[in-house]
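Quick one: structure tokens for this chain, please?
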Amino acid sequence: MRSSAIVSTVLALVLGLLTLGTSTALLYSICIGTVGPADQVQMSMLAVFGICGLGFATLSGYLVGLVARRAPIAHAVALSLMLIAIWVTATSWNTTVLGGSGRSLVAALNIAIALTGTMVGGWLRSTQTQA
């Protein structure tokens, strides 16, 4: 019984990361490809990215709670902590290896939107299971 709970938790977290990462990457590649270079992205496109990112993150948080089958908010918190760890790693990699500034407003907004959406998705799944 214990091993099936661990497997479902790991599967839920991997599914959440894949859903959020893949959908966001596809959105960015499609929209950036049609708009032009990344430095020419307009504020309206950033708003579209934010709204879609919030939807993808909410879906990811919901799916994590659905697949894990128990404690959806705890699993959404775990996914959020994984997102923070990935964001810190990517930011430090950008700063040390690639020579970037490490202070990107867009990156900070991305993680804030992802964390908010993930927790909302977990909360939605929690309220659905309690009803």
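The mean pLDDT is 78.
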